[in-house]
Design a protein that fits this description.
The protein is of the alpha+beta class and about 70 residues long. Helix content is about 30%, strand content about 35%. The protein has one domain. The protein has a 4-stranded antiparallel β-sheet with strand order 2-1-3-4.
C-alpha cells in the first residue's frame, strides 16, 4: 500500500549566509531522496503551515512520512 503522504508537495530550500533560496518543488519522497545536506530546509507538509513559512528539518520530514 502506497503512503499517500509521500505525494505531499513541499518546497526544498538551501540556507546560506545571504538568506534562503528555493531549490525546487517536489513531493516528500523526492525531497528525502536528495543528498543529506545540513543547509537544506523543507516547508511543512501542511499547506497552511507552509504558507506561514514554517520549515522543518530532514529528520522531521522523514517523521511525517513515517506517520500513516
Amino acid at each position: 500500500m502506497e503512503n499517500k503522504r509521500a505525494n505531499c508537495i513541499i518546497e526544498v530550500s538551501v540556507d546560506s549566509a545571504n538568506g534562503r533560496y528555493a531549490v525546487g518543488i517536489m513531493n516528500m519522497r523526492q525531497a528525502l531522496d536528495l543528498p543529506e545536506m545540513p543547509s537544506l530546509s523543507y516547508t511543512h507538509p501542511d499547506p497552511v503551515k507552509a504558507a506561514a513559512g514554517i520549515v522543518v528539518s530532514r529528520k522531521e520530514l522523514a517523521g511525517f512520512l513515517a506517520c500513516r
